[in-house]
């Protein structure tokens, strides 16, 4: 029988996810999630499907919907629905009402563990579905923006169950954010616009992990990278890393391509639009579509023309091109594939192991944000190195002694 | 009235082609191609359409077909057919018979000037349509492979009209080949496969202009680049540029991703296939689909599975993934966009000016391969710098004197 | 009157230390160190002299000696001794006995604040001069290795006064370690050996802040960088950053140049020496000369030949070249200049402000290792940006609200 | 017996010159230069000494002096004078009179072959010692500037014997100029000034082979590179390679460090000095000390202070720092070591083989500039690859046929 395209995509991605594959084999044997109901709101595409299937293989009943109206791949969603113990409600291009209706469906399953990318499930539970607070053991959160929101909640004492901050662990942000965002944003921008990166002024708003990966790789393709920041220390790092550092007010006049990865709202706004060069290209790679003030453009532009993945606004006779409606450009642009499989292998290996951890230990923990246990982080690194066939050094006893000794001097 | 998608694409590309736009304005005024029939075989997509429209705007009657069965964008072809004085016969996915029938249609128009990308028109005229040799004034050739073939013809005394080697001029190969191929191949591979470039062994077969652009940019994204070469001097350049240099026999065992840009046949062949790692990804960025010996794979693989733009062959239990059937990956993969607009701006500005040159001077020239006149090359550079707003230095009289003087010593 | 060379060097470095200069102006006015005796053991060269003079300008009586027998610049030491309130005991090439005698002289002044680079003063006080424990208010430590030793002491409950870990603050290790070590090691190796970096296998042992700066910059010059690590997560980072990652046992057979920056002992040892290629060059950039097991070489080599900054050992007919006797190569090689002035500007600005901080707050703190107060870290960043004329963005009220809000979702 | 420092230096460099070593072995056997007198004017340091000894080993009587008053290493010159059949007249810091007196001494030996770096010998013969024109068979020229002068002479019909343009052959300029100049200039600037490269605006005047090597490597260390050019095509290459391109008038206001590699006079002149930032650092890496108009500074500066390798001029209250008196900074700065041994291995292997070629074929050639025979160029590449243990591919018969065939099309 011919395979469906969703299954072909899932199998393709699975090939490049050796760590998750090994965990799946282990889960099949050990059934650590037996009897657990997991609710998920993630980008529903091929890599995520491999996580979902790993959780189901580990004994869980999995209910999943999207975490962004434009990031679902429908054929993958359909393929997932054919997997035993998996229930998928995501649809590409759904309305905001449909988006929240799907979240409700996930929550109707009364999950004991949640897995979020942007904290929508956790938020919804704490506000609209508070009856579930008694049944949820804990959650996992994937992204920087979600962690920010969780810390804000925790600071107000409003986070009522334990959540593992997967994003904050080294094996996540040093790979997924730096390399995954960096490469997938560039390929999405290149394939959507067909413009050359070499020689361009490419403005990166925000020099966090995502921003620095993007800056370094754009530079590696030949761009003149401009970094904007609000943190003076990160700004100096960018300066010494060889990038041009300036305020967005200055960058607006120079930039050819802009990518926001700040996690903040309106970093490109009405004060900047009028300064842009004719034909400037703007994209967002932050989690939410708030970084560019598109509402203002919609209200004030004298015209708008749309192509595949590109909306061109006319302002004072100049063209401003917005990619993917200002949503996560690597996922939401029509040809976008999201993060490469190999980085999602690491992130989702962490998610699978943290889902197990929260299942086993969640009840011992009070409400709050928790780090990924170091042993899990190291285990993922070890398994990835093994899959690459890379051997590294180990400390000899003499070296362990040396390191613990404060006596050896000049 | 709603614009069609072909026109939207053409206008989009045109925005990023300032040099060609300026030439078009000049052509509209001066009508240098008045009464000239131009026959073209090029990749029919949005950038090419801007060249075609420039030639038509200059007074020419233009007949065009594709130069590769998989590189045509049908909506662009249709939009071109709505432009006065333009006749387009290209269709994506045509058979070899249809491909050559379309070439015949172009030649039926009895062009006095030919513009080729790969030398198919010139070859066809010299072999199958020799009656046209009396009416053709001259031609222009776009690509490295075509130039190789032309030099081979000229060496045998078989090239019967003058052809300008656009590929060989600095403003072409230092930009189109280095940056255009480099970026478009990477974005095509990334968007087709969704694999990470960082950390991968990426093998580049051939360290010509295309190869070095690709190597440098892949390295800039974090790949460990391996270069294979047959020329010891280029091999040493690659070595000192920081790349790993080895034979393909050795590279075959290490590589994760292979891209051929050698202009040669079977640089990856049956002796290498069996050495590949499971899951190796192979793509070609040379003009013709001969660099990877796919015929051998078709004949010997134990299985084949196809996804969008990817054919997976099974050989000795290992998977070998071939992108875009081994054709030019940046154009022939389903999401491929070809070279970025800005480099085609330079290449097609050269083509437009060389078409004018051959119209005006072709009759004075005997059969053979000719360089682009330096004045044309410099003019394109000057106009591109002007469009970027970049000012450079000029030699003072004192400096001119210094440079022409051999007397000043230590 | 002609200036002496020491003064010329100090003034030269001072030009490139704008942040420290501004602090000096402030110190002159406010005299925050009035009456304080400061004991220092740092590399005595031109940048350090600017710190010493800043502390003296702030009212302190400063006693200083070196922290490495080969890193002192004698003309700078002499010039320092002509500065009021400064007493310098360092001498290049001193014996180990003389080295510790000089430390004793510094301690004889009964310092209330110590500034260390490698923890020699603090160690000496806690072991040999315990009578001083009653008069020391606190200390500052400059380097990674010193911090390791301090944490080991603190873990055993043996650190009896508060020490600020200058090395661990972002404004130190993101600049001094990454850029300072990276550049100064490369220039020292290049100028000592006159070998080409391009094309070489350059092995970096340790992928901490120093190692990654060195790796990136060596790669930027064209080296094929090999990284060895004991931490699987750092190893994977190196892998995805584009470097070759392997064990030292494997690297030993490939490497042309080796630089140890591990902070550990014997990372290149007798098991590796015999595997090295003829002519391999070994250097250390870690704080102590223990990273390469030179004692073993001294005992087992069949011959030794010395050049300026290079000792060549013969082993099994092969030459092994050790730079600067395995001491900090950027300081201890005869032409070495140490870290660039601009990074020491940041590090020493932190030291000056932390010396003030410990003076003002040390008595409130119990024994242990303390972070640099964030306000000091940010102040140094702000002043450096100001000196560069770089303006960055600031958060609007709307943005502050957005960031503190966990309510805004999809 | 203890070796002298000159011999130690020569042996050190010799280790990293495997191609020249192999040629020396061949020369010892074949004595191709038996009875030939060779006159040389080159930088007299350790790498050159290895060339000189190779020529002498091949049977020649060699007379050599320097080609720059500041580039001689006296201990190497002394060691050379102890080598049989070698006569060295170079002295570091000689006056212009002494410089030319030494050239006279070389010419007094009536050389039949000349080897120049900057064309001083050839110029002197054609102007002051025309009686030698009858005995000279031919010459070799090492550097870009010399070739320019030779072409100017040849254009006027004034070059009376054949000269091989070693600089112009791929194995010279793709390595010596790109990598040798790039690395040695950076290490010389870094070690002389102790400033950080990361974050600096580093201005490269001239984007020839030397300029692009320097630009790329400075960028690799973290500099923001600005390129100035007079050729619009090279300017565009620099732009797309990711560098900032502008006129020197604009660059003067931004730059922190300037390096001239233009081969032209006064590229930094009085119109630029007044625009420089306080503390700007200026160095020259072109052959002659004319690229920066130091005479103007000497005449107009209000003060001057000298340090080791640095002259600081005061102009309008600002400091302008000139390295190595504006002479070739990589050789003339006190700590400068010149080009790395590995690139001189290639260049001097070419020189040795070309000296043999001119000996054997010079009489057949008329006056003019000649390319290095391709067979010599390829031989050097092959031997270098062999010394690195690198194997590359060779064309199969099928591939040779494919490449010579113009028949294979789409």
UniProtKB/TrEMBL annotation, chains A, B, C, D:
Note on cofactor: Binds 1 NAD(+) per subunit.
Entry's Gene Ontology molecular function annotations: adenosylhomocysteinase activity
GO CC terms: cytosol
GO biological process annotation, one example: S-adenosylmethionine cycle
Residues noted as binding NAD(+) in the record, renumbered to the chain: 143-145, 208-213, 229, 285-287, 330, 339
UniProt-listed Enzyme Commission number(s): 3.13.2.1
UniProt key word Transport: no
Cited InterPro entries: Adenosylhomocyst_ase-like_sf, Adenosylhomocysteinase-like, Ado_hCys_hydrolase_NAD-bd, NAD(P)-bd_dom_sf, S-Ado-L-homoCys_hydrolase_CS
Tree of life domain: Archaea
Family the UniProt entry places it in: Belongs to the adenosylhomocysteinase family.
PANTHER family from the UniProt entry: ADENOSYLHOMOCYSTEINASE
Protein name: Adenosylhomocysteinase
Organism for this UniProt entry: Methanosphaerula palustris (strain ATCC BAA-1556 / DSM 19958 / E1-9c)
């Amino acid at each position: 029988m011919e395979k469906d395209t969703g299954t072909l995509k899932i199998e393709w991605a699975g090939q490049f996810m050796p760590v998750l594959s090994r965990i799946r084999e282990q889960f099949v044997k050990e059934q650590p999630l037996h009897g657990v109901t997991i609710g998920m709101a993630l980008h529903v595409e091929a890599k995520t499907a491999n996580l979902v299937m790993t959780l189901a293989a580990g004994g869980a009943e999995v209910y999943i919907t999207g975490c962004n109206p434009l990031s679902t791949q429908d054929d993958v969603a359909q393929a997932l629905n054919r997997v035993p113990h998996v229930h998928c409600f995501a649809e590409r291009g759904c309305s905001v009402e449909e988006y929240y209706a799907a979240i409700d469906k996930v929550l109707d399953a009364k999950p004991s563990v949640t897995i979020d990318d942007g904290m929508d499930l956790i938020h919804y539970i704490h506000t609209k579905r508070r009856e579930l607070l008694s049944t949820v053991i804990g959650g996992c959160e994937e992204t920087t923006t979600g962690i920010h929101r969780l810390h804000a909640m925790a600071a107000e004492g409003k986070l009522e169950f334990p959540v593992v901050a997967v994003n904050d662990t080294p094996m996540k942000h040093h790979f997924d954010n730096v390399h995954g965002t960096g490469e997938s944003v560039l390929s999405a921008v290149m394939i959507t616009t067909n413009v050359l990166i070499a020689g361009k002024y490419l403005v990166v708003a925000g020099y966090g992990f995502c921003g620095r990966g993007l800056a370094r790789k754009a530079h590696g393709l030949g761009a003149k990278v401009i970094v904007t920041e609000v943190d003076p220390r990160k700004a100096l790092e960018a300066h010494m890393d060889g990038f041009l550092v300036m305020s967005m007010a200055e960058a607006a006049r120079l930039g050819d391509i802009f990518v926001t990865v700040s996690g903040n709202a309106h970093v490109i706004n009405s004060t900047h639009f009028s300064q842009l060069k004719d034909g400037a290209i703007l994209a967002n790679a932050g989690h939410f579509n708030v970084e560019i003030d598109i509402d203002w453009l919609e209200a004030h532009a004298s015209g708008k023309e749309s192509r595949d993945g590109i909306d061109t606004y006319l302002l004072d006779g100049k063209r401003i091109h917005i990619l993917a409606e200002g949503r996560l450009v690597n996922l939401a642009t029509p040809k976008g594939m999201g993060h490469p499989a190999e980085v999602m292998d690491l992130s989702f290996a962490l998610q699978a192991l943290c889902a197990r951890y929260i299942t086993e230990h969640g009840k011992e923990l009070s409400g709050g944000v928790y780090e990924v246990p170091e042993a899990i982080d190291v285990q993922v690194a070890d398994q990835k190195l093994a899959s690459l066939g890379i051997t590294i050094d180990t400390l000899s006893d003499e070296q362990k002694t040396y390191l613990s000794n404060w006596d050896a001097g000049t």
